[in-house]
Specification:
The protein is built from 11 helices and no strands. Mean pLDDT is 82; it is low at 254-259. It is globular. It has helices spanning 8-26, 39-56, 59-78, 83-103, 105-120, 126-138, 151-161, 165-169, 177-207, 211-227, 234-249.
């Protein structure tokens, strides 16, 4: 019995969560780090993980990594008051991004084409078509939705109606967890989903525990489910609930540098 291959978007989600944890380790004093490793070795691990995101071909992974890197650099400059080091880190990231572009130009061409298609609504990429189909289905019953078991056939029919026959034949989902929730449970369900994402972050700030890691995890999670119906798969549900439980019930408090 073989295992189902891990989708590259889920692989990038795992790696990005690990990078969030490693950033927290980098800014801690050495005697408070959970990983008893020298700083240079932690940087090597970060470089390897970023390399895996690049070669995985995950366009959403690259977008989320750019946002995560921007958030970390901003935190390092504004909250830790190390602007010079933050600018150096930003320059290193820019050099590495340019080097990866020279090594894998086709990946970045796909990324720019996808972003242009999403912004313009062009049919050259299927995601805008899937997003539009999901929105049209959701707007049939915008308050309470069509029901978890009933929206799927309607969505498939809408894909065929909008001309995406290949997606209809292969039962594509919307690749967007927000739309999946909206179609099934309407604005009420979507509001509950947003509360489910926000309340652990609010609790972390109120209890002054794991605020930085919870913020970065929420950023990664909130953006990743825009590109993937994460809660529709067991691997996505287990990953999100596992990490939320760890972050919520962890007893370790933020150190003075993070707070």
């Amino acid at each position: 019995v073989g295992f189902e291959p891990l989708h590259h978007n889920y692989l990038s989600l795992y790696i990005l969560t690990a990078l969030s944890f490693l950033y927290g380790e980098i800014i801690r004093p050495r005697y408070e780090r959970l990983l008893r490793l020298p700083l240079w070795l932690i940087f090597c691990i970060v470089a390897i993980l970023v390399f895996y995101i690049v070669i995985s071909g995950s366009r959403s992974g690259l977008i989320i990594f750019a946002l995560l890197a921007a958030a970390c650099v901003t935190h390092y400059a504004l909250f830790l008051h190390k602007t010079k080091d933050a600018l150096i880190a930003l320059g290193i990231i820019a050099v590495l991004a340019f080097a990866s572009y020279l090594a894998l130009p086709s990946l970045y061409e796909r990324l720019t084409e996808t972003l242009a298609a999403v912004v313009s609504g062009s049919s050259s990429d299927v995601r805008p078509l899937m997003y539009r189909s999901g929105w049209e289905v959701g707007m049939r019953h915008p308050v309470i939705g069509m029901g978890i078991g009933d929206y799927w056939p309607a969505y498939q029919e809408q894909l065929a109606h909008n001309g995406f026959v290949y997606g209809f034949m292969h039962s594509f989902d919307s690749h967007n967890q927000y739309l999946e929730t909206f179609m099934g449970m309407g604005f009420i369900g979507l509001t509950l989903q947003l509360c489910m994402m926000a309340l652990p972050l609010v609790a972390a700030y109120m209890q002054r525990r794991n605020r930085l890691l919870m913020t970065l995890f929420t950023l990664v999670y909130a953006v990743s489910i825009f590109f993937e119906a994460t809660l529709g798969r067991q691997m996505g549900v287990l990953f999100v609930t596992w990490w939320l439980c760890i972050l919520i019930f962890a007893t370790q408090k933020d150190d003075r540098q993070i707070s």
